[in-house]
């Protein structure tokens, strides 16, 4: 049984992993900066003693601000960079494999044209910048440590196994459309030309489990788009 630390453990994506309802072949521990969480953690203080989390096989890095938080405070990008750097140090010191969940929004033409793994990066949007800078930190930190990380660039994940009252859940485009359909019996698509990549929650969880089971960390820089 693998031991897996999930950072950002009270967010939407973490809730999907937590409530997957699968046979417990792995032991997930969910860490969060929220003081009322079961495993409260101060990410920036972790640097002082990396031994506190040495007994894990994998780390799933989901920690960081959402788009609304970035609009209010773009300086959160710097804080996310610090957290990513510390998590990388933890993994390197204790030989822990890292899974970083990035976003398809790092691409300049996301929502406009078809994309490939080598499509141009959007450096102007703060949310795109947030994820792209974390990716760069990971690649730099693991430069001399091959086969220790994978990066998943995902689209809009939707659905859930168990409903939790998560803040901002209505900001998820599919969830919001469903809420509007139930409440108002209709919904309006303002711009039908915008493209989106939608990922069912089941596929997201299965992908995470697949990476862990198959130890899909074979190259220096692995990026997969969902």
What overall geometry do the principal axes of the alpha carbons give? globular
Using only CA atoms, what is the Rg? 17 Å
In whole angstroms, the N-to-C terminal distance is 26 Å
Strand content: 15-25%
Class computed from helices, strands and strand pairing = alpha/beta
What does the largest sheet look like? 6 strands, parallel
Strand order of the largest sheet: 2-1-3-4-5-8
Unreliable runs: none
Strand runs, count: 8
Helix segment tally: 6
Question: Helical amount among residues, as a percent range?
Answer: 25-40%
pLDDT averaged residue by residue: 83
Order of helices and strands: EHEEHHEHEEHEHE
Describe this structure in words.
The mean pLDDT is 83. Strand 4, helix 4 and strand 5 form a beta-alpha-beta unit. The radius of gyration is 17 Å and the shape is globular. The protein is an alpha/beta fold and 226 residues long. It has a six-stranded parallel sheet with strand order 2-1-3-4-5-8, sandwiched between helices. The two termini are 26 Å apart. Helix content is 33%, strand content 17%. The longest helix is centred in the middle third of the chain and has 19 residues.
């Amino acid at each position: 049984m693998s031991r897996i630390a999930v950072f950002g453990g009270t967010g939407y994506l973490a809730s999907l992993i937590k409530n997957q309802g699968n046979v417990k072949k792995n032991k997930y521990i969910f860490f969060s900066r929220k003081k009322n969480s079961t495993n409260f953690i101060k990410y920036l203080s972790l640097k002082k003693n990396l031994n506190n989390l040495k007994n894990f096989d994998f780390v799933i890095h989901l920690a960081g601000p959402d788009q609304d938080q970035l609009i209010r405070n773009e300086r959160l990008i710097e804080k996310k960079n610090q957290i990513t750097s510390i998590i990388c140090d933890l993994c390197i010191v204790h030989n822990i494999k890292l899974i970083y969940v990035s976003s398809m929004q790092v691409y300049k033409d996301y929502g406009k044209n078809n994309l490939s793994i080598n499509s141009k990066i959007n450096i102007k949007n703060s949310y795109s910048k947030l994820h792209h800078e974390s990716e760069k930190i990971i690649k730099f930190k693991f430069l001399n440590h091959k086969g220790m990380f994978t990066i998943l660039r995902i689209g809009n994940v939707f659905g859930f196994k168990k409903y939790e009252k998560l803040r901002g859940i209505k900001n998820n485009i599919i969830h919001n459309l469903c809420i509007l359909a139930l409440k108002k019996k209709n919904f309006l698509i303002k711009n039908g030309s915008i493209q989106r990549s939608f990922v069912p929650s089941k596929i997201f969880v299965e992908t995470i489990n697949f990476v862990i089971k198959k130890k899909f960390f074979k190259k220096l820089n692995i990026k997969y788009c969902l």
